[in-house]
Every structure is written in structure tokens, then in C-alpha cells.
Design the sequence.
């Protein structure tokens, strides 16, 4: 015949863990307060009374007594301080409203040059090429576009480059590292002025 299981409940270690956490939090809080008081230099345990040797003598604050007015003489009127006046155009550098920044020359649209290092349908391939270019010290960006009938393409482009000297030096760096690059020229569209 099998013995019935004993109904004694064994004491679990849960209460000892709780006690340990509580003690740890208390000790941590006391240490944190102690460090904060040490760093700020405040000592709440100093006595409130100072000894006569260390007590500094401070003169009592001066009280200004207003002269009493007699019925024959009235006190001088108190004028309020004038608030400073700010003129928007005087605050700006240059001090005159006619000093506007120079207008950029829109007649000579300088073309922007890009070196396209690759175009991929897979975004991960484009990210890998961008990372490879970053290791060479070349900053690139990924432009995503959809081409009709072919799907989504991710172009890896270096630029914008403003001068052909810059284009040639970057292209030679890419060629030395076996990365073919195609020159792409964009002419900015002039903006209308209001």
C-alpha cells in the first residue's frame, strides 16, 4: 500500500531572497545619499550653533528710511524705468534693412556630377557596396527609383561633385579598387523667386 504524500509544506527560499533584495536596496540608497552629500559638500550633521571663534560677523542689512513729506513739500515723483525698445531690423547684422544677403546667380547653373558605382534590385547589395565605399573613405548615398517594366532599383551614387578634378580623383580611387563607376551629370532646375 502506498503512503499518502505528506502535507508538510517545505519553506521556500523566496522570503530570504526578498529580504536580501530589501537589504541591498537600503544599503545602496544610504551609500548614494552619502556620496551625494560628500560630492556637494553639504553636511546635515553639523550643529546649528556656531562657536564664537568661527562665527562670522555680518553687518545687519541697511534699511533705507524715506524722508517724511511735509504738507508744503511733496516727494519727487518716481519715474518708471523705460523698457528697452528693439527694432527688428536693427537687431540683424549689418544694422540696416537694406542689407540683404546676395542673390545667387541663377543664370549660370553649374552642373552637378555623380559617380554611379552600381544599380541593384536587391537593397542588401546596394548597402554592401555603400559600406565598401565607406571603407575607402568615399561617402555614397543610395537612391531608390522604379524603372518601368523592370521594377525597383537601388542606385549607389557618390557625390554631388562640383568640379571635374574631384570627379577624376574619385574615379581613379574607385578604379584602383576594382569598382567601375559611370559619370552622371545633372543640371539643377532654376527655382522661381516669389
Sequence:
Amino acid at each position: 500500500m502506498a503512503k499518502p504524500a505528506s502535507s508538510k509544506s517545505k519553506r521556500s527560499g523566496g522570503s530570504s531572497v526578498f529580504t536580501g533584495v530589501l537589504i541591498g536596496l537600503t544599503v545602496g540608497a544610504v551609500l548614494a545619499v552619502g556620496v551625494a552629500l560628500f560630492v556637494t559638500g553639504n553636511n546635515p550633521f553639523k550643529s546649528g550653533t556656531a562657536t564664537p571663534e568661527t562665527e562670522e560677523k555680518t553687518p545687519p542689512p541697511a534699511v533705507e528710511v524715506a524722508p517724511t513729506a511735509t504738507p508744503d513739500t511733496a516727494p519727487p515723483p518716481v519715474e518708471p524705468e523705460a523698457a528697452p525698445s528693439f527694432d527688428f531690423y536693427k537687431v540683424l547684422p549689418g544694422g540696416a534693412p537694406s542689407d540683404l544677403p546676395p542673390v545667387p546667380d541663377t543664370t549660370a547653373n553649374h552642373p552637378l556630377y555623380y559617380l554611379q558605382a552600381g544599380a541593384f534590385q536587391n537593397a542588401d547589395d546596394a548597402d554592401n557596396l555603400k559600406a565598401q565605399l565607406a571603407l575607402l573613405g568615399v561617402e555614397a548615398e543610395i537612391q531608390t527609383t522604379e524603372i518601368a517594366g523592370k521594377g525597383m532599383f537601388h542606385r549607389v551614387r557618390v557625390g554631388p561633385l562640383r568640379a571635374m578634378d574631384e570627379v577624376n580623383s574619385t574615379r581613379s580611387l574607385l578604379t584602383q579598387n576594382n569598382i567601375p563607376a559611370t559619370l552622371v551629370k545633372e543640371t539643377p532646375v532654376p527655382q522661381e523667386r516669389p
Observations:
- The chain has a mean pLDDT of 75.
- The two ends are 102 Å apart (CA to CA).
- The chain is about 30% helix and 15% strand.
- Strands lie at 112-120, 140-147, 151-161, 182-186.
